[in-house]
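Record 1 of the preview.
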Amino acid sequence: MKLTHEKIIIVLYVITLITAISSRTVNNLYFAAMLILALSAVKFFLVFFQFMDMKHANSFWKAFIIVFLVGFTGAVSIILNL
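->
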């Protein structure tokens, strides 16, 4: 199934709504921060591969972005756990 721009935009809106609702309703601050961080990473991947047209880019850039985002997300989660 091909993901069109409209479907991706709808998914991005839904993720944004989930983030906004969870920031107000979740009582555990660590869990809320991890949820928001994970959803932000998913949003970044969707925007990166769909709208920046990186599906057809060099494998180096794909791997670099994936490693960077995993490292950044891991570092932030470690800092939040302290």
